[in-house]
Write a structure and sequence with these properties.
mainly alpha
């Protein structure tokens, strides 16, 4: 057996690897450049959600002097009485800036505190996915999740000392 036949030339190997690495790197750069040139800049899709109209429908359905749905329907749908719901909305509105209605930079009305709390309560009452409330209340999925998070934290902050404590001897 001839040992020279199996001789490994390290210099030739390194040179060949360097050429291959350079070729691969250049191909990668070309492909990346082509992808960047072909790709249009990503922008968010704007959906014109008419928050004011959706809020008015919500008020007409549940909170007006003569609502479409009565108190029994409200109780069934929200799993609480209307006066309790309105107390929560009022307490959150006065204690957390998130639950106030603001105007955006384009001078458009934002989402009302009533709509934000309704969104979160519907998600809790029905176990709804965040993006399903968009059809009725006109709030996107990300905003709906934020409403739910803020509502839960706000309720804990506001009512923890009174309602979310362990029972005392007087309570028993």
């Amino acid at each position: 057996m001839d040992p020279s036949k199996y001789h490994f030339d390290i210099a030739a190997y390194k040179q060949r690897r360097e050429i291959e690495d350079t070729y691969i790197l250049n191909r990668f750069r070309e492909r990346r450049q082509k992808i960047l040139e072909d790709k249009a800049p990503r922008t968010r899709k704007y959906l014109n959600r008419d928050h004011a109209a959706a809020n008015q429908i919500l008020i007409d359905d549940y909170f007006s002097n003569e609502p479409t749905y009565d108190d029994a329907m409200f109780r069934r749908r929200y799993r609480m009485q209307k006066h309790v719901f309105l107390r929560i909305v009022g307490d959150l509105s006065s204690s957390d800036n998130y639950f106030t209605q603001r105007v955006d930079a384009a001078n458009k009305e934002g989402i009302s505190p009533l709509a934000k709390c309704t969104t979160a309560m519907r998600m809790l009452a029905y176990g709804m996915a965040a993006d399903t409330v968009d059809e009725y209340i006109k709030i996107g999925g990300t905003t709906a999740l934020e409403c739910l998070r803020k509502l839960c934290k706000g309720i804990i902050r506001l009512y923890e000392q009174v309602y979310l404590r362990a029972p005392t001897q007087d309570d028993l």
